[in-house]
């Protein structure tokens, strides 16, 4: 139940970032992301120091995974991944597509894949069902880039499925950045 709530927040925040990008532009999105990362790092530091901040503590207790390196670790990488894509991808539609892939594809892959039965041979922590859900969720990018959403979804699904020691909130935007370097929008 907690994972489902986390992924719904993941989608909601992605939609908020898309709305900010589409209505206020890249510069505003980058300022909000940068300020959010700084505020999040300060909150993380205070939480690790033992100080209880009401909203932050409630969020950690209700939505954070157990055994994470630090509270808010995944959220920080999520914001950083979108910031990284915003700096590297110049076309606003391509950037919007990358955000769609991270928000919808990544979320659906976890929601569906955690109950999957067929494990991916090169990464036993991932399932084929999760990868198919990633592809389906990523097709929301079609609204912004048309048919190019299909190879983008495939490239990012492959990156998400690899057994890398990096958070997928970084590997997915990195794959989108590489995709748009070679497949301009």
Core attributes:
two-stranded antiparallel sheet; 185 residues; mainly alpha; 9 helices
How much of the residues is beta strand, in percent?
under 5%
The description of the largest β-sheet is: 2 strands, antiparallel
The total number of structural domains is 1
Q: Find the structural class using helix and strand composition.
A: mainly alpha
The Cα radius of gyration reads 16 Å
Write up this protein.
This protein has 185 residues and is mainly alpha-helical. It has one domain (2-182). Helices cover 74% and strands 4% of the residues. The protein is built from nine helices and two strands; from the N terminus they run αααααββαααα. The protein has helices at 2-24, 26-48, 54-63, 73-88, 92-113, 128-138, 142-145, 149-161, 168-182, and strands at residues 119-120, 123-127. The chain has a two-stranded antiparallel ribbon with strand order 1-2. Helix 1 packs antiparallel against helix 2 (26-48) and helix 5 (92-113) crosses helix 8. It is globular, with a radius of gyration of 16 Å. The chain starts with a helix and ends with a helix. The model has no long low-confidence stretch (mean pLDDT 91).
Give the structure's gist in a few sentences.
By secondary structure, this protein is mostly helical. 74% of the residues lie in helices and 4% in strands.
